[in-house]
Protein kinase domain-containing protein
Amino acid sequence: MPRLTSSPPHIHFFLFFYIPSVVFLCSLSHVAKSQIQDQEQQVLLKLRQSWQDPSSLDHWVTSNPSSHCTWPEITCQESSITELNLNLTKLDLSYNIIPGEFPTVLYNCSKLVYLDLSQNYFEGPIPSDIDRMANLQVLILAANSFSFDVPASVVRLRRLRILHLYMSEYNGTYPEEIFGLSDLEELRLEYNKFVPSQLPQNFTVLKKLRFFSMARTNLYGGIPETVSDMEALEHLDLGKNPLTGEIPASIFALRNLSELYVYETNVSGSIPQAVSAANLCVIDLSYNNLTGNIPEDFGKLRNLCSLILEFNQLSGRIPEGIGRLPALSDVRLSKNNLSGTIPPDFGNFSPLRRFEVAYNNLTGAFPEQLCHGGTLSWLAAMDNNLNGELPKSLGNCSTLSHVMLHNNGFTGNVPGGLWMSRNLTALILSGNGLTGELPEELTASSWRNMAVFEAGNNLLSGTVPTELTELPKLTRLLLGQNELSGILPTDIVSWKSLTTLNLSHNNISGPIPSEIGLLPELTQLDLSDNQLSGLIPPEIGQLNLNCLNLSSNRLRGPIPAKLENAAYDTSFLNNPGLCASNSFMRINLCNAQSHRLSKTNLTLIVILAIAAAMCVLLVVLFTIRASRKNRDWFDSTPKLTSFQSLNFTESNILSGLKEHNVIGSGGSGKVYRIIVNPSGDAVAVKRIWNNQKLNEKLEKQFAAEVEILGNIKHRHIVKLLCCISCENSKLLVYEYMKNSSLDHWLHKKKRSSPIPGVANNMILDWPKTLQIALGAAKGLCYMHNDCSSPIIHRDVKSSNILLDSEFNAKIADFGLARMLAKPGEAASMTAVAGSFGYLAPEYAHTTRVNEKIDVYSFGVVLLELTTGREANDRDEDMCLADWAWRHIQDGNPISDALDEDIKDDSNVDEISNVFKLGIFCTATLPSTRPTMKEVLQVLLKCSDPLYNVEKKSQHKFDVVPLLENSKNEEMPRSNFHVLECNTY
Ligand SMILES: *[C@@H]1O[C@H](CO)[C@@H](O)[C@H](O)[C@H]1NC(C)=O
Ligand SMILES: *[C@@H]1O[C@H](CO)[C@@H](O)[C@H](O)[C@H]1NC(C)=O
């Protein structure tokens, strides 16, 4: 990453500190020449103040104007300061933006005991003579870009008590003797891509070590039994390493151990008993292969505050005693095979904040007192076999933010208070047997934070209350498959954030409110299988919906013209009164059906029109014949504009426009592959429309494409060789891309037309996939940033990313691109461009789109690349971007979403990073999406095998808030809190 190369203004501050004698001398001698002694004294006192009045300078007491000359640190000549000597013992420069190598000038500070350079931009190796700072007891270099090996010289700093080297870019080894630094109290090496290593077989000397972390440092092998020799250990973190074997029972013999983290490793076996580790507060053994039961004696860990065992294969019951622990606040047991009932005491003895037991086989009633302590905020128990009524107490729990209880067997009414819960953000109750009505008293002031309300597939009755519409943050409202009736409220304009509305399979009647067409963010609308009647309001056509289902209602009349689109061909079925003007809509045709009165008139008009057209045609033909005898339509006025030297002629092209050369056809015409010379060179020719007069739209499209492409020369943008313009047809001649377009490679089941010369069973491996993503990002980045005026592509999708013989990606099809900055063009952009599944939500309701719509579409491509799924799979009921978001929201591990064909242990982190990037890019709000430049930087980092992707996650760019805002919903998963490629 390009770091600061020129000195920022702060650099003076830095120098000021670490070479005090030099800088002070210069600046102060200047003062001395022009000012009186008193001012010198004031400067010294101010300096002391800015150093937070260290006690070692307490003797700086003023009695007369030159008294400072008597202070031992000061040397004066003629009552004016000439030297300032400070024995620096502690130097803390953390959280600055200081670049450069390790500042060896510090060696001059021979008294230094404490050095903190963390959270800066230092790079290069730690010097091999760092042991010259022999007095160091505390060395904190964390969160910098130091790389190479950790030198053996560090181990010669025999007095070290605290050594923090975490989150840097070390790519070599660390000296094993580090485990022999017997005075160490804190040793933190986590988040470094060290050469794989194993923990030493004995820890016999680290008797004072309190804090030990080597999370994500490529540790393999087992955790040694001797871990218990570190008898002072309070904090042990070995997470995110490919460790194997079992968790040694000796860990639980550490009497002072308070926090134990062994998550995301490959350890297996059962969890040892923990009788003597009475101080344990945090146990995080999540994401492992642990089996067996949760030890009964965890119920005796009086200090236990967090028990995190999620994503293992634990079975059996949850020990009763755990429910009675007095300090427990965080319980996460989801995704195991736990069975039996949930101990009823949970919440009764301790203030729970988080309680998650989802995806198990738990049965019976739900604990009554989870919110007894008044702190519960996360509650997840979906996908179990729980039953009975939801505890009334949940209705008096104002701290609740997320309640996810779907897919259980809960019955009875929703506790009344839940409808009033002020902090509720997500309430998901779908797939139960809940009854009762949606309450009328629900108001924006009670549910002001509600973003997701899902209660589909229950037995809820009554109407959709108007009050439910006063929720400005609501993004998803899913109430399908209930027994709702009555008419839909019309006063819905406050649904400013609503993206998904599903009220299907109910008994709702009356008209569809036209106001639905004004909802600015709506992309999915399912009102199917109700009793809705009347006309479809034309406003619905204003929406840009990825999913629309109005079938099985009693709607009538013509469907709005803008909805007559093959993408909606299953959206209107089973409404006997509806008609369309196109047969591909799979419903009755309008003119065949009604309007009997006007039928005769219509016929007459048609006949007259045909007659007139024939007259015109005859005249035209006659004229053409008279003026240009025997010429076919092609060479009427062929005009070739070339953009570089060509090795073919226009007749090579024209003679190749044969049906057997067609390799594709798009919205505006066919694409041919034409061999242009005997040596077999091929070009791709896009022919815009057949031999009919170009309409205005196509003419514009053509002009735009030529104007842009002719002027762009970039490695990742498809090269336009020339264009041939005839009166009736336009031909764009491109370089031929041997490996076709990306979509041919992605979707196996759709791969019907094999690519000439390529084995049909070949799949893209991950390095190739990443290379393609990078190339496409470079092309788009260039268009957004490096052209004379920024260009928005407007139709980025996998079929517009072409691949040459080396799998270099090139962006194609600028038919829809427009110069951003051109005035007066905006009006012509209203026609809906883009492709379903790739469309950014804002496309639907504004003509003032910016380049973030390309970022969205590119994000969808990234999701396609990482999951192997289609952008808009008609078998799924949601588009890929929503599916991916949903996958995370449901608490599933990212690795489950990834394409099985490309992922393996070595690349799963990288693919996950690119998947996450896809999530960021598809944020609902354009402003929260990254720019293409940022996307490119992240991809570069992801593809750099040396880069430690998680460094500085706390420092430079914490992406969690971005993620949360991006969908107006909070991330449910705690382990999602580290963004990996985050050096935007
Ligand atoms: C600073 O160093 C000088 C010379 O080495 C020594 O005489 C003095 O005692 C030291 N002062 C402190 C506060 O360490
Ligand atoms: C380690 O990283 C540095 C700096 O990025 C690089 O110059 C060096 O070649 C790398 N060493 C290894 C062994 O990869």
Observations:
- The pocket of 2-acetamido-2-deoxy-beta-D-glucopyranose (ligand 2) is lined by residues 147-148, 171-172, 946 (CB under 6 Å).
- The CA atoms of residues 619 and 923 lie 57 Å apart.
- Residues 436-584 form a domain with the Leucine-rich repeat, LRR (right-handed beta-alpha superhelix) fold (CATH 3.80.10.10).
